[in-house]
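Supplementary Text 2. Reproducibility record for the structural model of the 348-residue chain.

All settings were left at their defaults, and a single model was retained for analysis rather than an ensemble. We include the record here because the model underlies the residue-level annotations in Supplementary Table 4.
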Amino acid sequence: MDKHIGKQSIRFQNPPVIVSVSSVAGPKEGEGPLGSRMDRVSQDILLGKETWEKAESEYVRQGIELAVEKSGLPLSGIQYILAGDLLNQAIGTSFGVRSLQRPFLGLFGACSTIGEAMMLGAALVDGGFADYVAASASSHFCSAEKTFRFPLELGSQRPPTASWTVTGGGAMIIGAPEAEPGRYGACEECPRVTAATTGKIVDMGIKDANNMGAAMAPAAADVLTRHFEDLNIRPEEYDVIATGDLGHFGREILFRLMLEAGYDISGNTTDCGIEIFDRDQQDTHAGGSGCACAAVTFAAYFYPQLCSKRIKKFLLVPTGALMNSTTVQQGESIPAIAHAVRIEAGGV
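Retained model, structure tokens:
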């Protein structure tokens, strides 16, 4: 079986299973539509720590440990941790996992990081290089605002196109279907990662750090078009397509771009940044964003529906803006990327 399909896609020969997931989040996320579905909601955005960055590391640690606990595996059974965040040199993640003492691969795909972690983790498992890996992504509203936009103390007015960075961490354990079957939950009912399409960097010249949807929508359109062409499928074959954090404005741009490419995805496509917040009741403007956005929303909302087979074929398309504070200050445009990960219900 040829695992490399078309120009940018892979099809897994022995589709790895997502054995367990976890979602830990902050108070605002807990007040949103998915709050009751999350594993753990903190009422203290600092989690008892001295800084926002240390709090984010705590979200990372708690998320991974909880996913491991739910899988039934000992921590020593996790052969790799693949994870990342938005902070400089991914310090939220590296400081969060240092106490876990497991082999670690730090990743950066901005808000698309969970897609990158899932693809690479599934490739390690399908390739026989690991039986179980942990994939994780995190973000924190306060640390992201300070890094990419304005210090919170300024009380700056947020424009309608601005998104609200999700505070929290999402994690999952990806395992080989034949690895000690039944013992740790690797069963026919577990959702499977069956294919993935790696995105390219797309830069349309957007410079507004408060309009992430416009910057990332072209990257989502690019990877979706390639995914459909590489795998020779139509978008309607999926029960749900969920982009990462385009928000309300970015999703409309994506719909127009996909129509120009010959695909109507409006009937089955949502966005994690739209699902996680109620923008009218919570004043989140365009919706949610951040590395935790797709990770937490998938774990709390979409994964249970895959387990129950309410959703049978699902495409997760996390999107990321590949910028940092230096590029913003230097007036650079915002390059973006998106990855597409196909997940199917077990036993289907």
